[in-house]
Write a structure and sequence with these properties.
- This protein is an all-alpha fold and about 325 residues long.
- The protein folds into 3 domains: about 10-120; about 125-230, no CATH class; about 255-315, no CATH class.
- The protein is about 60% helix and about 0% strand.
- The chain has 18 helices and 2 strands.
- It has helices at about 10-20, 30-40, 45-60, 70-75, 80-85, 105-110, 115, 125-150, 165, 175-185, 185-195, 205-230, 235, 245-250, 255-270, 280-290, 295-300, 305-315, and strands at about 95, 100.
- Strands 1-2 form a two-stranded antiparallel ribbon.
- Helix 8 (about 125-150) packs parallel to helix 11.
- The longest helix has 27 residues, at about 205-230.
- The protein is elongated, with a radius of gyration of 26 Å.
């Protein structure tokens, strides 16, 4: 009835569509309903926008947090008014008051079942990943502005509700660590630039970036620990590189901190997800620790390199 009485469409035309629906041989009890859903979805003009919003809808509906709907327009990069305009032909499936949501959970069930929704399918994990991607798409321009104009971006008035999703550990977005790594890559690319920015003014959005990257670090450490526990003992005894330690350090003068540090970082970059200390690494570490630690710390140019060194120190001290 909502579909037929949609105020943006001709009721007779809508009724004709319902009468002409054919389930295409499906035996599912939802076959006719699914055909109606698909017909409504296919009639939306901006299909890319629609599919993105459906992913957002599935994502935020599967996250245990309140008021996430307040970010819908921001995450879709449109005004609240424009969001309603773009989705106005979805009134038979979505309610718009007090906020945009499904009339009935059955529509979410339809979207999450690939055999029913086809090209409009959004899994729970896929929805949460897309939701996280939209958060990153929202955060990156803000961080870029802070980097370019650290003193000119003014007082930030943004108070995104999505911060409640990641303010505590574990985050309420549940994804494999690989998805976190892939999705947060734009922030990883910006973190060193932000650290080198002269006293950027703190704001909720930059704090979101810090919290997201912290979650990634914790998830990666947890993942590596699990991998290390599960790895066969014989694999743990294997060296990470096939380098000869003499070849690594023999051409580096004893007073060349840059050379020694570069050799150590080079070894760390060759490691896989499970960090194993081998002879080469020990030789490089021995060369580096001979220098003043303050001078060594000053030579580390990126957060990534610093984290690798911290992980190595933690492993050696265990």
């Amino acid at each position: 009835m909502r579909y037929i009485s949609d105020e943006d469409c001709d009721p007779e035309e809508q009724l004709d569509i319902v009468r002409n629906l054919k389930p295409h041989g499906k035996t599912s009890p939802f076959a006719l309903l699914d055909e109606l859903y698909l017909e409504i979805l296919k009639r939306q003009r901006d299909q890319d926008f629609l599919k993105t919003f459906l992913a957002l809808l599935v994502g935020r509906s599967s996250i245990d947090a309140s008021n996430l709907h307040e970010d819908d327009a921001t995450l879709m990069n449109v005004s609240e008014k424009n969001l309603h305009m773009k989705l106005r032909r979805m009134r038979s499936l979505l309610k718009f008051e007090p906020f945009i949501d499904v009339h009935h959970k059955s529509f979410l069930d339809f979207l999450q079942d690939p055999s029913r929704s086809g090209e409009y399918h959004v899994s729970r994990q896929g929805g949460q990943k897309r939701y996280l991607e939209l958060i990153i798409d929202c955060v990156v321009p803000h961080i870029s502005m802070v980097i370019e104009q650290p003193k000119g971006h003014g007082k930030c008035c943004s108070r995104p509700q999505f911060r409640s999703v990641i303010i505590e550990y574990p985050p309420k977005i549940v994804l494999p660590v690989e998805d976190w790594q892939e999705t947060l890559q734009p922030l990883l690319d910006l973190q060193d630039k932000l650290l080198n920015t002269s006293k950027p003014q703190p704001c909720p959005v930059t704090q979101v970036m810090r919290e997201l990257l912290l979650h990634l670090q914790i998830l990666q450490r947890t993942s590596h620990l699990v991998a290390a526990i599960q790895a066969p003992y014989s694999n743990m005894k294997k060296t990470v590189t096939e380098c000869n330690p003499t070849l690594v350090t023999e051409n580096i003068p004893e007073n060349d901190l840059d050379g020694c540090l570069s050799a150590l970082l080079s070894c760390l970059q060759k490691t896989n997800s499970v960090l194993v200390v081998d002879t080469v690494m020990i030789e490089c570490m021995s060369a580096v620790v001979a220098f003043d630690h303050t001078e060594t710390a000053a030579k580390v140019q990126s957060v990534t390199d610093a984290q690798k060194l911290i992980d190595l120190i933690d492993l050696v001290n265990q």
